[in-house]
Each structure stands twice: as structure tokens, then as C-alpha cells.
Write a structure and sequence with these properties.
heterodimer; A: 282 residues; Rossmann fold; 5-stranded parallel sheet; two-stranded antiparallel sheet; 7 strands; 12% strand; globular; B: 317 residues; alpha/beta; 13 helices; 14 strands; 20% strand
Chain lengths: 282, 317
């Protein structure tokens, strides 16, 4: 990987955060909290870490792949995809509207470039990502598969079925990241369904575990580079990434309350005043 | 038409195993996945000959569906294998989101469908799978009738781009279709020509319908027998052509009446050509332990019940 331009990446992240709050405000629905928390991670992935080919090909042969398992944070993914050139930025204004390619949760049916499988019903993305990683091995394609999951999503049993498979079959061309923000819809994960010692859980399932900070661009990149260095050893890698839900907008930070609601006009203005417009609003 | 007979009985799941093995030899993109039922699904020969393209997933069907969806990204054509119950009801949401809605080229291959798995009882005897699968947009639903047709269908679905549900069974049943008959998805096959009533049958019930036809013939009713191996897309043209001549119909399947082939026939007739229809299917009940033959009789889906239904429907014309 080249030397990252942290300043440049932070500017992109600021614009992406503006896009997120404007998108959910415009349709008075969507999920800003997790989107803001994962903005730095997705910016680092798409603008620095991943080897991507354009134009978009659904098969993704000869390039890195990204899967978003926690599909409800679609606003951040859509902004990232548009800002990295998969489709025109003004299309972000169609988010969640009738006849849009930007469905409430990511989908393939409308043909939005950048998306290879639908997600939204939780717990399914790790399986799909492992399947894609297995296909890469069959194709002698040495690129890497990335998948992001929510921590609340780890309540789903399928995640652990996939974890068992990943270790048993030595899926070592995959980096799974958990958005470890400690929040889910009904409250803190500790109250809703305790994750207990998450690191020990993944280790017991046979994965290499790294722990990282997800809202510091330097740290995000460092963690992903570390994760990459652990690939190819016959053991899958999971990155437990601590984030703050709502990061970047002070009144949304650290609470599940902004999981799935949109800001009103006044709150939008407040949020935008905290986020520098760096690449031009759509 | 020549009289349909058989000299050999074989299970339809072995037709799947044979078809998969042949596909392995002709199509490098075909991969197999199995949830700890390699022997039951007859996937052992494929596994032995193509170990690099076969994936044991353990007793984890939800993960198997997701893996299969993911493998299509990269051009693979995954064939998943487990019992019909665990291929559908257990994993409906995974199929819905990751396969059907995502338009993934996954072939969901399901054995031990219906009552004829026998002694294992109702926990395993799924009778709702056709309904669940046919309701999903983008999904093709196929229920072949014997070893030869199951083998041919297995081979044919690899060339069809899109999700497919392929349903077959456990017991040995007569082989009565030609080994060289090409399988055309969505194209019904007329087994016996007749004038008084059309029997639309699928899966194991096709042979029962053929036996019923002989009984009906002896009693002066000239029945037509059509093999609806593809429930979705349904061969509407063939159905209307036949009922247009015979004026009434019987549907026959190893499935619940709600949501099965009979429902699809009823819908077709109501919309295009209203005509009397009797349904031979399980009537809103779960199965139980017993031999396949005992269960088919007790739950009203054997040849005798087709005969009864045909006589009744002819009276309703």
C-alpha cells in the first residue's frame, strides 16, 4: 500500500458525513448513527486500501471485494460509492425514493454499481463474503474480500455458522470487520444481548483477532494493514473495530437513539455546521 | 402412444447424484455444497472425483445458502444439497434475500421431499416447499418424476442462469421416462393422450397418475396424463390446450393442497378457461411415520385417489 494521505482521506470523510445527514433528512428516514460511525472505515477502504477495478463488474474477478452485511447503514455506502465514482453524486438525492436505485437497504435488482448482493436482513453477509472468498481461491484470484458487520448483528446464529466454516476451511483471503459500537436498536448491547468477551469468542472459533479504533483515520488504516499482513496464513482474520455511533455530529454521538431516525431541519443545520463541505454538496 | 412400463426402480435422488457427477465433468464452474448429508443426497461420487469443487458445510444450512450466493460472485454455479425441509423452510429468509432477491445463480437441490421419506415422520416430511419456493420472484421450481428425468433436470438447470429449486425424493420409484429425453424447463410433457379428463401430475405422482389412467380406461374414462415437472414457470399453454379438449382436470402432487401445483392449475384455469378441477394433495395436515405406500394411501395421494378424483370431476363437467 502507498503512504496514505490522511488529510485528504479526512476531507473525504467529512463530505461523506454531510451526504449521510442530508440523505436521511431529505426522506425523513434511514440510519445515520451507524453510517457516521463507519464513515472513516469505508473511506479508508475505498480511497486507500482496496484494489478496485472500474467500471464495476458484478463478478469482481481480479479485484478486492467489499460486502456490507449490516445493510441498514446504506447511506454511508451509497455516498462512498458515488464519491469514488461508481455512479454520479447527484443520484444520492434519490435515496429511499420511488423508482430509485438507492433502496432503503442495498439491493442488486435495480443495478446500482458497487453492490453485489442484497443485505438488510441481518447475519447473512459473512456467509456471502466467505463464499466469494472461496470462489476467489478456486479462480486463483489473490485479491482480498472485506466484509463489515454490526456488533448487534452478531446475535444472529448464522454469523457463527459462517465463523466455524471460515476457520475449518482456512478462508485466509478475507478480512471481517465488526463495527463494535456497543449499541443496537433497543439499547446498549450489554443490555439487549451481551457479547461478553468478543475477542475470546472469535479466538475460540479459530480466527485471528485484531482490535482497533474505527474513528481515527490513521488507526483505521494501520489496523487494515495489520489485518492484511495476517492474511494467507490459513486462518481467517476479524477486526474488532471500536467506533462511536453518530461520530462527527455531537448530538448523535454514542447513543442508539440515532440508529434509525432522521434529523429535523434545525438538527440538520446544526449537524452540517460541524462538518466541513470539502468536495461540494450534491 | 406406446404403453408406459418399467423394468427398474431407482430413487430420484440418485438421478441427481448422477447428473451432478456428469456436470462436474463437463462444466468446471459447477461446485457442490452439502450440509452433512453426502450419502443421502448421493453427492459422494462428485465429492470423490472433484474434491476441490466440493464443500462440506456441516449442519449449517443458513450458512450454506449464503456461501452459495457468495460463490456465484466469481462465476461459480453452486449446487446445494440437503433435505427439502432444510433446503426451504429452515432457510427461507436466506434464500429470499441472498439468492432470489439478489438474483444469484444458485441451484437448491432438495431430497427427501414429501411423505415418501417415510418412517422419519412429519418433522422431515415437508409438504409446503413448492408453495414457499414458487412464491419467490426469480425462482424456478422443478419437481421431476423419476431417475432419468431428475438426472436430465440436474444437467439442464446448470445452463439456466438464475435461482432454481430442484425437488426430489428418497424411495425407489419406477423409471419410465427415456434416458435420452432432453429436459426443457417449463415445458410440460404429455405422457398419455386422452379425451375425457386431464390429470396434471408432478414428481412421484406422475407414475401414480399413469397407473390411475389404466384403471380409468378399464372403467370407460379416457384420461390424458401430463407431467408438470416445472411448477414455475408453469406451462400455461399446454394446460389450456389440454383442458380445452378434455373440459376438466385433476391435479396430483405430494404436497399440501395449499400452495402446491393444484393451486397453480386452479389459478390458470380460473383466469383463462374456467373448468372443474379436483385436487389430489395433502389436505392441510402434517404427515407421520409409516412406509411410503401406507402414507400415500392414508393421506389420499395414491393412484386410487386419482381415480376417485377423475371420476368425480368428469361428473362435474
Amino acid at each position: 500500500m502507498n503512504e496514505p494521505n490522511i488529510n485528504e482521506l479526512e476531507k473525504i470523510a467529512s463530505q461523506v458525513r454531510r451526504d449521510i445527514v442530508r440523505m436521511v433528512h431529505a426522506v425523513n428516514s434511514g440510519h445515520p448513527g451507524g453510517s457516521l460511525g463507519c464513515t472513516d472505515f469505508l473511506t479508508a477502504l475505498y480511497f486507500h486500501v482496496m484494489n478496485l477495478k472500474k467500471p464495476f463488474s458484478p463478478d469482481g474477478i481480479g479485484e478486492d471485494l467489499f460486502f456490507l452485511s449490516n445493510g441498514h447503514i446504506s447511506p454511508v455506502w451509497y455516498s462512498i460509492l458515488a464519491r469514488s465514482g461508481y455512479f454520479d453524486v447527484p443520484e444520492l438525492a434519490t435515496f429511499r425514493k420511488l423508482n430509485s436505485r438507492l433502496q432503503g437497504h442495498p439491493a442488486t435488482e435495480e443495478g446500482l454499481p458497487g453492490i453485489r448482493i442484497a443485505s438488510g436482513s441481518l447475519g447473512q453477509g459473512l456467509s456471502a463474503a466467505i463464499g466469494a472468498a472461496q470462489a476467489k481461491k478456486l479462480n486463483n484470484d489473490d485479491n482480498t474480500v472485506y466484509v463489515l458487520m454490526g456488533d448487534g448483528e452478531l446475535d444472529e446464529g448464522q454469523v457463527w455458522e459462517a465463523a466455524m466454516y471460515g476457520a475449518h476451511h482456512g478462508i485466509d483471503n478475507l478480512i471481517a470487520t465488526v463495527d463494535y459500537n456497543g449499541q443496537q436498536i433497543d439499547g446498549p448491547t450489554d443490555k439487549v444481548m451481551s457479547l461478553l468477551d468478543l475477542k475470546a469468542k472469535w479466538e475460540a472459533f479459530g480466527w485471528q483477532v485484531i482490535e482497533s479504533q474505527g474513528n481515527d483515520m490513521k488507526e483505521v488504516i494501520k489496523a487494515l494493514e495489520h489485518a492484511k499482513s495476517l492474511c494467507g496464513k490459513g486462518v481467517p482474520v476479524v477486526n474488532l473495530m471500536r467506533t462511536e455511533m453518530g461520530f462527527g455530529v455531537d448530538f448523535m454521538v454514542g447513543t442508539h437513539k440515532w440508529h434509525g431516525i432522521a434529523p429535523n431541519d434545525e438538527q440538520l443545520a446544526d449537524a452540517l455546521s460541524q462538518l466541513e463541505e470539502t468536495l461540494g454538496d450534491y | 402412444m406406446t404403453k408406459l412400463t418399467y423394468t427398474e426402480k431407482k430413487d430420484t435422488r440418485s438421478g441427481f447424484g448422477a447428473g451432478l457427477l456428469e456436470l462436474g465433468r463437463t462444466n468446471d464452474n459447477v461446485v457442490g455444497l452439502c450440509a452433512d448429508l453426502i450419502g443421502s443426497l448421493k453427492m459422494g461420487d462428485f465429492q470423490k472425483e472433484f474434491p476441490d469443487r466440493f464443500f462440506q458445510v456441516g449442519i449449517a444450512e443458513a450458512n450454506m445458502m449464503g456461501l452459495a450466493a457468495g460463490m456465484t460472485i466469481g462465476g461459480k454455479i453452486p449446487f446445494t444439497g440437503t433435505f427439502a425441509n432444510f433446503s426451504t423452510g429452515r432457510v427461507y429468509d436466506q434464500i429470499r434475500q441472498s439468492i432470489a432477491y439478489s438474483e444469484k445463480n444458485v441451484k437448491i437441490c432438495a431430497s427427501h421431499a414429501g411423505l415418501t421419506l417415510g418412517e422419519d415422520g412429519a418433522t422431515h416430511q415437508i409438504l409446503e416447499d413448492i408453495g414457499m419456493m414458487k412464491m419467490l420472484p426469480n425462482m424456478t421450481v422443478i419437481n421431476p418424476c423419476d431417475f432419468n428425468q431428475t438426472k436430465a433436470a440436474t444437467i439442464a438447470i446448470a445452463d439456466h442462469h438464475g435461482p432454481v429449486y430442484l425437488r426430489f425424493g428418497r424411495p425407489a420409484v419406477p423409471i419410465f421416462t427415456p434416458a435420452d429425453q432432453k429436459f426443457e424447463i417449463g415445458k410440460a410433457i404429455k405422457m398419455i393422450e386422452g379425451a375425457d379428463v386431464t390429470i396434471f401430475a408432478t414428481g412421484h405422482l406422475v407414475w401414480e397418475a399413469i397407473e390411475a389412467e389404466a384403471t380409468l380406461e378399464a372403467e370407460g374414462i379416457n384420461a390424458e396424463v401430463i407431467n408438470i415437472h416445472t411448477i414455475k414457470p408453469l406451462d400455461v399453454e399446454a394446460i389450456l390446450e389440454s383442458v380445452g379438449r378434455t373440459g376438466c382436470a385433476v391435479s396430483a402432487e405430494e404436497h399440501q393442497m395449499n400452495g402446491g401445483l393444484g393451486d397453480s392449475i386452479a389459478q390458470t384455469l380460473s383466469l383463462h378457461h374456467p373448468a372443474p378441477l379436483e385436487m389430489v394433495a395433502v389436505n392441510d395436515s402434517f404427515g407421520e411415520s409409516g412406509t411410503p405406500a401406507q402414507l400415500m394411501t392414508k393421506y389420499g395421494i395414491d393412484a386410487a385417489n386419482i381415480v376417485k378424483a377423475a371420476k368425480k370431476v368428469v361428473q362435474r363437467k
